[in-house]
Write a structure and sequence with these properties.
Layout: H1 2-47, E1 51-53, E2 62-77, E3 82-93, E4 103-105, E5 108-109, E6 115-118, E7 124-125, E8 131-142, E9 154-163, E10 171-175, E11 181-182, E12 191-204, E13 218-230, H2 232-252, H3 261-282, H4 294-319, H5 325-357
Parallel strand pairs: 2-10, 2-11
Antiparallel strand pairs: 1-12, 2-3, 3-8, 4-9, 5-8, 6-8, 7-8, 9-13, 12-13
């Protein structure tokens, strides 16, 4: 009889392990499918957009060299998809075309709050014959932030310039990559600054905007991009560490004697409630989004772990009703094995999610 009970417990231990693996693998598939869907949506937005990579400048087009020196960026609002920027911009060109009068900051918001101040009343004429105009720029700009990798997300603070009147057969922007930079004291609170880059594009309006004499609907555009990523300490110490401590508390229930049924049942229940509140607080820094972010996926793994631990404790309570010493010892042994499997699988899955989103 004793051996029959032990065999039954071993069979059920294998079932529990199989259930663990099935749920954890399901969580991984859910996470990766969420990533691919978000990436697909992102690619669709890019492909369906009207900005394309610029080709060779048209013969006769005036090339306007444009550079940017970033001084400060702050008030990054992921809910409103905006940020505040302050810096210096310069244009250098040859010829009689005046690119200043038709210059537009395409992604600026609150036009009344955008301040563009020329540093000289008239453009300077350089010894080479080129004209140079420097200006101070300060204002709020729009940036559609992608939060799928939060809190390990990387963002770009972009400023896009465009000519409002002359198409790309007349004016073409060229980035002054050699002199474009950010100040040594350029800081973005809560973020780490990576680099600054620039890219020339063509903006195809797919319309002549009512001008039947227009020969082209393509206008030259130039985007300066400041790459930033969220500070890693936020993830490791403020978001992940508390969750790991809660999971450890949950798993400790499996190390207690199966006879302490009330305590063992209370521990995963408490862990589950704590995890719910932790998830809510961990997402306070970002707005509500329709898809799962990285932190959501990690919590899916945590919920799966806690619920299955809860189910195992309840299953154990039913198996030791007769208080048979052999049964209690066998259940305790199964719990220890299950704890190792659970902890290893959970840590591995979280590591995979972090790696795939980094």
């Amino acid at each position: 009889m004793k051996s029959s009970k032990s065999g039954f417990i071993r069979i059920n231990a294998r079932k529990i392990s199989g259930l663990w693996l099935a749920v954890l693998i399901g969580s991984l598939v859910l996470g990766l499918s969420g990533c691919s869907t978000q990436a697909e949506n992102s690619n669709t937005n890019i492909a369906g957009g009207v900005y394309t990579k610029a080709g060779e400048p048209a013969p006769g087009a005036t090339k306007v060299m444009v550079g940017l020196y970033a001084v400060n960026a702050y008030e990054i609002d992921t809910a409103a998809n905006t940020f505040f920027f302050k810096g210096y911009l310069w244009l250098r060109w040859n010829g009689d075309v005046d690119p200043l009068s038709t210059l537009e900051f395409a992604n600026s918001v609150e036009e009344w709050g955008l301040t563009v101040t020329n540093l000289t009343e008239e453009p300077q004429v350089l010894p080479s014959g080129e004209k140079l105009q420097m200006m101070r720029v300060q204002g709020r700009f729009f940036e559609p932030f992608v939060l799928s990798n939060y809190p390990l997300d990387k963002q770009n603070l972009e400023i896009t310039l465009e000519d409002t009147l002359n198409d790309n057969t007349k004016i073409v922007y060229v980035p002054d990559t050699k002199e474009t930079a950010f100040d040594s004291r350029f800081k973005v609170p809560g973020w780490t600054v990576n680099a600054i880059s620039a890219e020339t594009m063509d903006h195809n309006y797919v319309s002549n905007l009512g001008d039947t004499t227009a020969q082209s609907s393509n206008f030259s555009a130039l985007t300066f991009s400041i790459g930033i990523h969220r500070a890693q300490n936020l993830f490791w110490w403020k978001l992940l560490l508390p969750l790991i401590l809660v999971l450890i508390t949950n798993w400790l229930a499996l190390l207690l004697s199966p006879t302490y049924s009330e305590i063992r049942t209370a521990m995963p229940a408490t862990a589950l409630l704590t995890t719910v509140f932790l998830q809510q607080s961990s997402l306070d820094a970002i707005p509500q989004v329709s898809s799962l972010v990285l932190m959501d996926l990690i919590y899916v793994v945590a919920y799966s772990t806690i619920v299955l631990t809860f189910a195992q404790v309840i299953w154990d309570n039913h198996k030791i009703k007769d208080e048979n010493a052999g049964t209690i010892a066998a259940v305790a042994k199964t719990d220890r094995k299950s704890l190792v499997i659970q902890a290893a699988a959970t840590v591995a899955l979280i590591a995979i999610l972090v790696i795939t989103h980094s």
